[in-house]
Write a structure and sequence with these properties.
This protein is of the alpha/beta class and 183 residues long. The chain has six helices and seven strands, in the order βαβαβαβαβαββα.
């Protein structure tokens, strides 16, 4: 189950968001103050953080920058009623937000954005898991190759293969038995 954190200084916005999200199988935590959200970030992990842009004390971009430092895997989205182009560029560049949404929002657009962000998070986690698995396999192969090279250096005869004119591997012991009439 995905764990979401919603931050907005307006309680009615948080209630409206919660109402839209109630049918989804998500754990939703809400905060009216950015400082409280920062405190929560030290206590638990979140998969997605949706923050309002304009809040007293700390704007959403600054908050999402802290989120990026504390929980870099978490998807970050910004909710704004203002079309401040400079702020949006700053949000994308500094807080590395996934997406920004406008107030008032369209419920379908909001849910689609959250679904997409969580799907991307799942894919990133799977990619990371697969990378770690591949790295472990690579490390194992390197260790096996080093052991083989060590064995080759210690016992070179183990790696020498004798072949007959047909290309078949010749085992010296069996061939010497053949010459003694044991065929």
């Amino acid at each position: 189950m995905a764990n979401l954190l919603l931050i907005d200084d307006e309680p009615n916005i948080l209630h409206a968001l919660t109402r839209v999200l109630h049918k989804r199988p998500w754990q939703v935590t809400t905060c009216e103050r950015p400082e409280k959200a920062l405190e929560l970030l030290t206590q638990q992990s979140f998969d997605l953080i949706l923050s309002d842009y304009r809040m007293p004390g700390m704007d959403g971009i600054t908050l999402l920058q802290f989120v990026r430092q504390r929980q870099p895997e978490a998807m970050r989205l910004l909710l704004t009623a203002h079309g401040d182009r400079e702020a949006l560029i700053k949000a994308i560049n500094q807080a590395e937000i996934f997406r920004f949404l406008s107030k008032p929002w369209d419920d379908y657009e909001l849910l689609t954005a959250l679904d997409t962000a969580l799907e991307l998070l799942t894919l990133r986690r799977e990619q990371k898991r697969m990378y770690e698995q591949l790295k472990q396999q690579h490390d194992l192969l390197v260790r096996q190759r080093e052991a083989q090279e060590h064995l080759r250096a210690e016992h070179p005869a183990l790696f020498e293969v004798m072949r007959n004119e047909d290309g078949a591997i010749v085992l010296e012991e069996w061939e010497s038995l053949d010459h003694q009439g044991f065929s």
